[in-house]
Amino acid sequence: MKLVAAIDVGGTSIKGALVDPDLHIIATANAPTPQNDVEGSKTVKVISELLSKLASPGEIKAVGLAVPGALDETNGISRWSGNLGWKNLPIRDLLAREIKIPVAFGHDVRTGALAELRNGAAKGLNNAIFIPIGTGIAAALIIDGQIRSSNGFAGEIGHVNVGGEFNCVCGKKGCLEAAASALSITNAYAQASGKTGTSSEEIATLSQNGDAIAQKIWENAMASIATACQMLITVLAPEVIIFGGGLSQSGNLLIDPIAKSLGESLTFQKVPQLVIAHYGAQAGTIGCAMLALDLLPNGGN
């Protein structure tokens, strides 16, 4: 049995997992994402240290690396990532040279969609959209049974204008990501309440329990997500929209207000099913492992 590592680089943390060929997670290790690491060297070092925590030298046969932003997946280059500060960074090759292990490279959202398409909530469907909500927001588009990327630029739903009031990392104002990402929700609550360190999941619970500030922030965020979903539904007519990422742990507190808003706004459009990802917040991890296993003969078995 050959083991692989899944590395998911987010704007806040880098998540690592040791995975077997049956997609069982054997061990995990996380670390804060280095900030202002425009050359990627600090990030590569952190990943190398995570791999050392996950397994002994030689045990890991391949690594699946997922990062956010606009990517050249074929050549392993991050063209642009607002949350990481990367531009035209050959991160796959930088990591491969450091760890001397084969590295498969993919978009953090599309790797999650791969897991859901092969063995999750999109299995057997032709048209679906996967939207993980974490530090950032993007969408993976499954069209005619295939994940479509348009050379790495498709699916950046986090940067459509939903009429929000906050500035975005992309330089614009009103983007979905600035209104409804987990980071944006926590920042908005801290600004309005004066209380720092409250997670987005806790804000969802506070909203449910009658906290007026939390209710307003949560309702605004859910309305923004519903607006973006309405755009996707009108243009792409998915059978299902799958929510992942950290915010998916809020379950029906996430699904119900979006479904209600869509029920009030959609007219002729085909109404999709709204579900939480089969792999939840671990969809990206499982997808990374799948990419790594694809590098090995017989999937590592």
Number of helices: 9
Radius of gyration: 19 Å
**Structural class of the helix and strand makeup?**
alpha/beta
CATH class of the largest domain: Alpha Beta
Provide the number of structural domains: 2
Q: How are the strands of the biggest sheet laid out side by side?
A: 3-2-1-4-8
Intertermini distance = 6 Å
CATH superfamily of the largest domain: ATPase, nucleotide binding domain
Strand proportion: 15-25%
Q: Give the helix level as a range of percent.
A: 25-40%
Number of strands: 13
CATH level 3 topology of the largest domain: Nucleotidyltransferase, domain 5
Low-confidence stretches: none
Short key terms for the protein model shown above:
301 residues, Nucleotidyltransferase, domain 5, five-stranded mixed β-sheet, 9 helices, ROK, ATPase_NBD
Any overview of this molecule?
It is built from 9 helices and 13 strands. The relative contact order is 0.16. The chain is of the alpha/beta class. Strands 3-2-1-4-8 form a 5-stranded mixed β-sheet, sandwiched between helices. Strands 11-10-9-12-13 form a 5-stranded mixed β-sheet, sandwiched between helices. The protein has 2 domains: 128 residues, 2-Layer Sandwich (Nucleotidyltransferase, domain 5); 155 residues, Nucleotidyltransferase, domain 5 (2-Layer Sandwich). The model has no long low-confidence stretch (mean pLDDT 94).
